Hints:
- By secondary structure, this protein is of the alpha/beta class.
- It is 47% helix and 8% strand.
- The chain has 12 helices and 5 strands.
- A 5-stranded parallel sheet has the order 3-2-1-4-5, with helices on both faces.
- Helix 1 packs across helix 6 (126-136).
- The longest helix is centred in the first third of the chain and has 28 residues, at 76-103.
- The protein is globular, with a radius of gyration of 22 Å.
Amino acid sequence: MVAPPKAILFDIGGVCVVSPLQAIADYEKTHNIPKDWVNFAISRASPNGAWQRIERGEIKLDESFLEAFRADLHNQARWDEYHRVFKHRRRGAKKEQESRSTDSGGIAGSEAKVDEYIPPLPWIDSTSLFWGMMSISRAPDPFMFPALRYLRMQTSFLLGALSNNITFPPDHPFSRPASDPASDIRAQFDVFVASADVGMRKPAREIYELTVQRLDEFDKRRGGSGIGPRDVLFLDDIGQNVKMARSLGMRTIKVVLGETEEAVRSLGREIGIDLLAETRREGGKAKL
């Protein structure tokens, strides 16, 4: 039987709070933007796009950032690349469908010429999109946050957070601490590593190593024998982030958008506690 982890390491957005990816999906659907275009544009701007730079704390959240973010979302070369990738995937899906049709005795469709037309680059209100993403991720996840509170109050697991975050201006309402410590997200953790504070972001290997180092130091201060990567269970909603954690030896749970209840169930199995039952018994309410 595998021993439970000593430390549980959480991503924040999309795990403990509602995912900003949900705001992106909602915006794309509402404004008839092709699915996944926004994520594609942001990721292809890496490593020095506006999003990557602000999450590393290299630039401030001001009009210059919003203008740079707008430029990343209106890049014609990336739009063309997005459609090339989409068409490649569509060809693959079509060939698979035709193969199934042939295998089942049907007649494969004729090899139709793929439409090479690329529609105009869509306009995106980047400021509205950005603040929609930030606002939605203020809401606690209704399943994971009560589970986190339970772990904090009722267990001795070392709890850590590793988040790609954005620092808000000091006078912005989102910079104000929560009035109730029970709803303060940072107060739930023994160790909190935020990308904008340390100048690195996931999935860079170095930020994981720094986080394990801080978990190890905290554990030894409280009289423990120390923490290594194999002692850590990591939850994140981004595949690349999970992959890097796994490569370092951590156990991982990939949290799927809209399926945090199942992620809590998986977490419970890893640590031997029915977290869903326990939080329901306590009538846990998630508030931030």
